[in-house]
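Model it.
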Amino acid sequence: MSNTTSSPWAFDDSSRRAAPLAGDTKYDVCVIGGGIAGLTTAYLLACEGKSVVVLEAKEKLAAGETEYTTAHLAWVIDDRFSRVASIRGDEIARLSAESHRSAIDLIGEIAMRENIACEFKRLDGYLFPGADGPDTIREEMVALARLGLPTERIDKVPFPACGTGPCLRFPDNGQFHPLKYLTAIAAIIRAKGGVIHTNTPVVKLESGSPCVAHTEAGPSVRARAMVVATNAPFDSGVTLHTKMAAYTTYAVALEVRRGYVRPALYWDTEDPYHYVRTTPTEEGSELLIVGGEDHKTGQATDQAQRWSRLMNWTQARFPEAGLVRHRWSGQVFETPDGLALIGLAPGWRDNLYVITGDSGMGITHSTLGARLVADLILGRTNPFTELYSPSRWTPAAARTMLGEALNMAAQYTDWVTGGDVNSADEIPPGHGAIIRSGLTKLAVYKDETGKVHQMSAVCPHMGGIVHWNPGEKTWDCPCHGSRFSCTGEVQHGPAVEGLTPVGDRLPAAAASS
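Modeled.
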């Protein structure tokens, strides 16, 4: 297996690139983030005649978590309808299913209306028992019957091997190729008068009417409405961070012959759960995409073993699975009730909107979020406004929130612990480690040539100490999920600044510790 990570969706297209913002400007709506949430929002508003600008920090559109999804289009809630009902009631559980069905419908409608060749198709979904046994399946069957949601109990999941049962079949889910879809959407936004800028990180938001987005390079955008669609929110108030927890999830894509796996979406009931789908290749075969092995971001160092466990799990159920063509990880933000945070940002005036808290269902949450936020900006009623309100309080999930808060608080004890190593001499080429330097800590990376890169280990977002991720050669913050390249550049928010370089030499305190 390759030592590098890659996604099966990545491909180059001119629509994914644009010039950076070069000067101050003004629009009806400024969308921050060029993934599926941001581009879908911009598309829907451009279709309504609004002047829209999209600001993307990376070099290419959809190069963040959208490129590292497994692109399940499911209306089946990851956290189970029984759990959502226990926290927020049966009506909310039914509405959540309806909202995700509406997202699948919207993607299908846009693909058809705009004639986008993105491999969109409808298919069944299967929930099957994992090592935890059939009790979860039985509990979910009771809830689904009470909620009146369409499902069918069958004896076993249709896998080539290890078809354990009983399982549940859910009709009318979907799948597609997210990058083919979004490159077309980007071109349509431009055709409708929208403007896109890449290489344009936004570092500060200013409340007011209009509100202002200040970019790293200096130019700013004034807009009547601002949409933060950056997966992890930044500069949108502290409240949102108390309602989300960052998790890393892993995926592998193995080559299989076409038709070997029945086209469907699959999930098991383990915690963390496994999820499965296929996608065609240009060579005439298929890729079997399997995900799982989740953990809190920045709180594991066994990435290679997690990919290996995924492969072992896959080969036990799909014995003909061949070479691993891709392996990668993604980041999800879990909320206490398993439903996203979409709408007006808490504590701001009525012109700043957020789409966040994907809870492992980023594609459908982003799409329904784009529709919801566009409706709010346009002054229209949306049936899911209260369902996803970022200001909601869920007392039945207080225990979950407390557990996540205690976990986050515990990460700050890293300030008083020792380092991973005592000196850079102990770090092999191509690896990084934390070194204590007096009262603080350094993130030290030694590249393949032996050159040492030294940065503050303090995450600039809220002061957590980053951890080295050997699987992807990144520095990951265990507090709120910010991720940085091996040399300190921001790869994923909520941080908007990189790790601070500390110069060419280690301080004496670190060198002698």
